Amino acid sequence: MFRLGIWFLLTADLSPANIMIGIAIAFIIPRSKIKANDLKQWLNVLKELIIAFPQAYLEAVEIILFPHKYESLTLEKVEGERPPIFIFLDIFLITFTPKTIVLKYQEEGWYEVQKINREKTTK
After folding, report:
1. Which residues fall within 8 angstroms of residue 18, CB to CB, at 6 or more apart?
2. Do residues 76 and 121 touch, judged by C-beta distance below 8 A?
3. CA 118, CA 120: separation in Å to the nearest integer?
4. pLDDT digits (tens, 9 = 90+) for 39-73
5. Interhelix angle for 84-96 vs 36-65, to 10°?
6. What's the predicted TM-score (pTM) here?
7. CA distance 100 to 106
8. Phi and psi based region of residue 96 (left: phi greater than 0; alpha: psi -120 to 50; beta: remaining)
9. How far is 79 from 89, CA to CA, in rounded Å?
10. Roughly how many angstroms between the first and final C-alpha of the chain, as a whole number?
11. For 109, which DSSP code?
12. Residue 33 and residue 40: Cα distance in Å, rounded?
């Protein structure tokens, strides 16, 4: 049902032909079993999403009111072995806020993140 719902959101078409195509695609897409560890990771991602939305608005207002003239590059560690969906969600959450963007994911388990700052940082 979830996959079918996503299909309807993507196509915005409830015609009989589109419903049949959506059902077929929902059955064709491979399924994976959910592990207890994955459930904890999903709950953690949900918590981070709830925090990210107000943070993004606050950062946007801060950028408007106070110019951010400096940039910095940092490396952020990925938490353990993560499936590709969680890596995507991490990159999405980092990039969602206006002050940060992921430039590169390194296979060794690091994100290369560019941040804008109000003051020059020295490292």
Report:
1. 8, 11
2. no
3. 7
4. 788 788 888 888 988 999 999 999 999 988 899 99
5. 20
6. 0.63
7. 17
8. alpha
9. 13
10. 51
11. T
12. 14
What residues contact 28, with CB distance under 8 A and at least 6 apart? none
Secondary structure of 34-61 in HEC code, one letter for each residue: CCHHHHHHHHHHHHHHHHHHHHHHHHHH
Burial 29-55 (b: 16+ CB within 10 A, else e): eeeeeeeeeeeebeeebeebeeebeeb
Ranges of each domain in the chain: 1-31, 33-117
Separation between Cα atoms, residue 94 and residue 119, nearest integer Å: 20
* Cα–Cα distances in angstroms (integers) from residue 67 to residues 54, 114, 122, 123, in the given order: 20, 16, 19, 21
Write out pLDDT tens, residues 10-34: 788 888 888 888 888 878 876 666 5
